[in-house]
Amino acid sequence: MAKDKLRVGIAGCGMITEFHIRAMKQIPELELAGVWDIAADLAKNTAEKWNVKAYGSYEEMIADPQVDIIDICLPAGVHAQYGCQAAEAGKHLIVEKPIDVTKEAAEKLIATADKAGVSLAVILQNRFAPSMNKVRKALDEGALGRLLYGEATIKWYRQESYYTSKPWKGTWEFDGGGALLVQAIHTIDLLLWFMGSKIKEIKSFARTVLHPIEVEDLATAILEFESGALGHIVGSTAMTPGFPERIELYGEKGSIALEAGRIVRWQVEGMQEEDYLDPVAMGSGSSDPGGIPLENHTAQLQAIARSILAGEQPPVSGQEAMESLNCILDIYRLGGMERKK
Ligand SMILES: NC(=O)c1ccc[n+]([C@@H]2O[C@H](COP(=O)([O-])OP(=O)(O)OC[C@H]3O[C@@H](n4cnc5c(N)ncnc54)[C@H](O)[C@@H]3O)[C@@H](O)[C@H]2O)c1
To answer: Which residues constitute the domain of residue 34?
Structure first.
């Protein structure tokens, strides 16, 4: 009989894990089998809270025949390392964003999952918000005509304690970047998804302007897309007290703007703005990492589960997740902020 449920083992019991578990509780196609963390006490506490197994080692979790999917909620710089191990053990993979912190590691993860014949989905949950789908659908139907310009501004703030709370925060090795790769990546991913064209050229600056960290806390870039459209990105964790992120899209036939995931402007030829504006904001991580809404994780995790059960490629694929990673790594390289080994 075909399976109607997939069992998940989560690697990492930090901040985002709670979101994954709470989301899974609402998804009939997913069941949490157990958790593991390099810090055994964290795994034990999480397991007790949710009444699941705490695995004594990562190897034990990926060897468990009861587990179908390994969900990687670890620092970004170890995503590929742990992901490859799980893929080789025959487990499907869910990997939190970013896919990893270098192009080489990310490509290795994609190739290893392909070779092992397992699915790989990267969490970029904001694509699953109803507002984003409304915009994507309108663009697919040509509502804006030819796109001329797109802008993503992520003027967020993180207190110094955010970076000093854990030794891997703000490091090239484990976070792999700062404001862009850790925070702004969601909005950058959406901008690239909406613009629907590969990037042709980037001019950028990336700097550490406020926090005592290796990585950038302010970066700005001008983009030229292969379509001929232009773009602009500003990403920061130094803009106190932190402001809702915005995306603005301009085309031949009008303009759409989103703020904190909510459509705040829809001035498009032949369309009534009031039919499209969102009444309620979605929630934003502009000043609090835990301020993100749960609904988008729930929607993406459910879409992943249904795809795997149907034998289809789950969203968002590793290749698609490479787009935002490559864009951000190029902004660093061209902006004077290259990763130090
Ligand atoms: N999708 C989103 O909106 C969102 C939001 C926050 C974080 N994230 C992503 O989730 C992932 C985890 O972030 P977090 O905020 O939960 O982190 P966290 O620091 O709260 O937790 C990370 C966990 O990994 C463990 N760990 C640390 N170093 C390790 C190592 N070398 N090997 C194995 N385990 C190790 C730690 O013990 C910790 O429990 C990151 O990729 C991050 O970018 C995504």
So the answer is: 6-126+296-316
Ligand 1 pocket list (CB less than 6 A)? 12-17, 37-39, 42, 73-76, 78, 96-97, 123, 125, 166, 168, 182, 289, 292
Same domain, 215 and 133: yes
Q: Mean pLDDT of successive 10-residue segments in the chain (341 residues)?
A: 89 97 98 98 98 98 98 98 98 98 98 98 96 96 98 97 95 96 98 97 98 97 98 98 97 97 96 90 71 92 98 97 98 89 61
> Which is nearest to 145 in space by CA: 196, 189, 199, 190?
196
CATH number of the domain that 42 lies in?
A: 3.40.50.720
User: Does residue 340 form part of some domain?
Assistant: no
3-class DSSP state for residue 82?
A: helix
Q: Which atom of ligand 1 is nearest to the CA of 125?
A: 1
List Cα–Cα distances, 2 to 64, 120, 262, 309, in angstroms: 20, 21, 39, 8
Dihedral sign for Cα atoms in the order 158, 159, 162, 168: positive
Nearest alpha carbon, ligand 1 atom 38: 14
CATH code of 219's domain: 3.30.360.10
Residues 301 and 248 in one domain: no
pTM: 0.96
Please say whether the beta carbons of 211 and 222 come within 8 A.
no
